[in-house]
Each structure stands twice: as C-alpha cells, then as structure tokens.
C-alpha cells in the first residue's frame, strides 16, 4: 500500500518524479561509507527549482526529514538516509545554465557533475580548477555542501574560493539568491559562505555561479620514490622553493601495491616505502628547473628514484597511481580518517600519528595518502577478512578517539574535506569549541526550526 504521505507529496508537487523501488531506495539511501542500512521513505528527483521548493514546503508542513543527495561519493555518512527520511536527489538538475565571458563565471545547476563543469570551462578557454578522482560522479552541489578540496588545493584552494554566488532553498521552501556573483559585497552577513560546508543542514543548494581561472600553464608530472616518511617534508619544502607546484600528493607503498593489483602499471622495478606525485609548471620534461630540483633532492638522499612523464598518457598513468587508491581500497572496507593540521605542524604531527597507529593497529594494514602541501592526510585502515564489520568498526573507533585528541593538540581538524556527517560527529568537539558548536546550533535552528534538513548530521538535535 502506498504511504499516504507520498500521495500528499504528489498532490503538492504534480509531475515530481518519485522512486520507491527497493533497489532505488538502496542506491539513493547511502554513500560510500556502506556502514548504515538505507531505509528512506522514498526518493524525490526534482527537475526544477520550483519542484525543490514544493518538496521542502511539503516536508516542512508534514514534518518529514529530508536528506539532500548529490553524487553520494562522500565518505562521512553525510548523505545516508537510514531512518525513513525523504531523499532529495538533484541528479536531474545538471544543466550548464550560463557563461559570462566578462565576469569569467559559469552558472550551473547543483546536480551538474564536476567533470561536466570542467569540460564546459575548457570549451571557453578557461578552467574550473577544483579537481579530484571522483570528478565524473560527484556533483557541484555536493562539492559545495562539503567545501570539497582535492588534489589542487595547494595551487587553487578549496571549493569555497570558487563560488561567486549560489541559490539556496530553505527548509520552508524559500529561495535565497546569495551574493549574485558580486566581487565586492559588504552588505552584512555572507550567507553564501554559511551554506558552503553546511552538509545540507541549512538549505539545499540548487544553483551555483562559479568563478573560472585562466587555463593552467604547461606542467610536468613527476613521480618520486622516497626512502622514509621523515624526508617527506624536506622534499616538499625543497621543491616548493624551486618550482611552481600545481599539485603535490603522497602515498605509501601499501597504497601502490593495492592500486597495481587493481590494474595500474608499476612505475619502478623495485618497491619503495613512500611516493610523491606532483605537477609543476614547466616547459617540458627536460626543463632545467625540474632536473636541478630532482638532483638536489637526490644529493641529499631524500629521493631514491624518480620518473618525469614524457607524454600526457604517461602523466595520466602516474596520476592513476594516486587517484586510483580509493577505488582500489574499497573492496577491503577501509575505515577512513580525513585529518588536517597546519603545514608547519605537519612534521611533528606525522611522527606522532605514525607512532600512534603503529601501536594501536599492529594487526591491521594501514594505507596512508594525502595532500601534504595543504596539511591533509587520509588514513585508511583495511579490514582483515576474518574480522566482522561491527567488531572492526568498534576497534577503529577507539583509536580514532585517540587520533582526534592528537589532532586537537596540534590545532587541526578531524575532517579536512569529507565533512562531519555521521562518521565524525562524535569528534566535532575536538575541532570546534563548545561556543562555536552552540552558535552553529543556533544558526541551524534559525534556518530550519523544525529540524527537517539532514537531521543527525554534524551534531545531534537538542533534547526536547
């Protein structure tokens, strides 16, 4: 029997596409965490802003919780619908709406995949520089909701820096047009920036005006093999002083083994414990600056081997070694931590974090990778085959509490770019003070007094 609430939703939003089949509820009710059993009421797939507004007016009137949904590539449980919520998927709202050559902006619907936006920018001789491996499936709305970073934060910053304006539908169904693409706007609070990184708890992003950048300079891609963890920051500092770095990513030999087993080509005849893949502005693979920088690091004993890509195809192969890690590790059901500290605090933090994990995870395989140039580490603990999922998660959660304390002591964050969601909710207090969390709660209550937008994410609702 059809739920009577869905009949009233159909009446409130005639023509709205609703999905209720079990496989659709499973697909739309979860993200990449796979730790919660999806149990949504239904999936609403609006095609227009008007339909989004109608859905939220209905949800507010009926008291139905709503989980906004983009590409569901998140790793924090932020898009999970496990308690009878209505999933509001923006995947049908994926159009590129306008390009402004004077302002150098691109206006898109929130469901547009990142790769679509990047290609649209290239067609106009420009670039949208935010980038990460899930570019083909993640959406602009989801990127904005988590202030996504990725592999080029070192050069271009996070998503926040590239949002010139956005349209947000509030819990009551009101449409807010925030900043409207203005370069300067000192007329009070910038609600645009409140919406960015709010994980769908303050409203639903339906449209964004994005800044574009000039096309990137010619770059050379290098893969370096490092003998130890300790030299990583020396290599970064030396190269940053000699080259214009576009990206600087590191990963361990453990990561490389899994990516090669997943189909990538091994870069060297022997294995090394640590690797760095980087892009640097250069006129070609024989640029003297590259050779000098590599020679300096080799002379210091910081680099044991290396390769400079001789073609675009080879550069793609080298980047696959980094970008393929998440997919290669997925079958092992990894427990993920996504932490960040100031770059200057990285050496001390790395040493302590490595010691902590070695002591607390002696029986587990741990895969490290991340964005060293912006202080962001991804720590993946792989589940042993013989250990049950619940026991594995419980064991990892114990150590995450210790890791959160370590992050707090170093003035960092327990979530660098994946959001808080459900996974990191217990550790929000290690990153934000009680006063900050109180203000966040007040803002959330002001914009969503009934608490229908992505409830349970970021922090629990106050007890009534």
From TrEMBL:
GO terms for molecular function: FAD binding; oxidoreductase activity. InterPro entries: FAD-bd_oxidored_4_C, FAD-bd_PCMH, FAD-bd_PCMH-like_sf, FAD-bd_PCMH_sub2, FAD-linked_Oxase-like_C, FAD-oxidored/transferase_4, Oxid_FAD_bind_N, Vanillyl_alc_oxidase_C-sub2. Its cofactor is FAD. It comes from the Bacteria. One of its GO terms (biological process) is respiratory electron transport chain. Keywords: FAD, Flavoprotein, Oxidoreductase. Residues 36-215 form the FAD-binding PCMH-type domain. Belongs to the FAD-binding oxidoreductase/transferase type 4 family. This is FAD-binding oxidoreductase. It comes from Luteimonas granuli.
């Amino acid at each position: 029997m059809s739920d009577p609430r869905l009949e009233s939703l159909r009446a409130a939003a005639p023509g709205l596409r609703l999905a209720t089949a079990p496989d659709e509820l499973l697909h739309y009710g979860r993200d990449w965490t796979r730790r919660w059993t999806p149990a949504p009421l239904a999936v609403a797939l609006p095609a227009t802003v008007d339909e989004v507004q109608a859905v939220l007016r209905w949800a507010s009137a009926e008291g139905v919780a709503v989980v906004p949904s983009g590409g569901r590539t998140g790793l924090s449980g932020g898009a999970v619908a496990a308690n009878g919520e209505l999933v509001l998927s923006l995947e049908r709202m994926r159009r590129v709406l306008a390009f402004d050559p004077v302002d150098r902006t691109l206006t898109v619907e929130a469901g547009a995949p990142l790769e679509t936006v990047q290609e649209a920018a290239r067609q106009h001789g420009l670039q949208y520089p935010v980038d990460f491996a899930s570019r083909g499936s993640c959406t602009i709305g989801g990127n904005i909701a988590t202030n996504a970073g990725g592999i080029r934060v070192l050069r271009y910053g996070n998503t926040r820096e590239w949002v010139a304006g956005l349209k947000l539908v509030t819990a009551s169904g009101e449409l807010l047009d925030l900043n409207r693409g203005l370069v300067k706007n000192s007329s009070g609070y910038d609600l645009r920036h409140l919406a960015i990184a709010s994980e769908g708890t303050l409203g639903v992003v339906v449209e964004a005006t994005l800044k574009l950048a000039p096309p990137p300079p010619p770059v050379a891609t290098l893969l370096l093999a490092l003998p130890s963890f300790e030299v990583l920051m020396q290599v970064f500092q030396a190269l940053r002083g000699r080259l214009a770095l576009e990206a600087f990513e590191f990963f361990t030999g453990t990561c490389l083994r899994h990516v090669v087993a997943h189909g990538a080509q091994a870069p060297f005849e022997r294995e090394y414990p640590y690797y760095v893949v980087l892009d640097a502005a250069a006129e070609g693979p024989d640029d003297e600056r590259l050779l000098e920088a590599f020679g300096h690091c080799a002379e210091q004993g910081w680099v044991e081997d290396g390769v400079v890509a001789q073609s675009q195809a080879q550069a793609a192969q080298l980047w696959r070694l980094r970008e393929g890690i998440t997919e290669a590790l997925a079958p092992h059901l990894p427990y993920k931590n996504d932490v960040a500290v100031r770059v200057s605090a990285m050496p001390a933090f790395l040493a302590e974090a490595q010691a902590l994990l070695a002591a607390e995870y002696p029986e587990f395989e741990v895969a490290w990778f991340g964005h060293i140039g912006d202080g962001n580490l991804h720590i993946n603990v792989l589940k042993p085959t013989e250990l049950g999922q619940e026991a594995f998660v419980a064991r990892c959660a114990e150590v995450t509490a210790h890791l959160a304390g370590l992050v707090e002591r170093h003035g960092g964050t327990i979530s660098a770019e994946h959001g808080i969601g459900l996974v990191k909710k217990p550790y929000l207090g290690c990153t934000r003070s009680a006063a900050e969390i109180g203000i966040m709660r007040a803002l959330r209550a002001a914009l969503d007094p009934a608490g229908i937008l992505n409830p349970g994410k970021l922090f629990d609702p106050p007890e009534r």
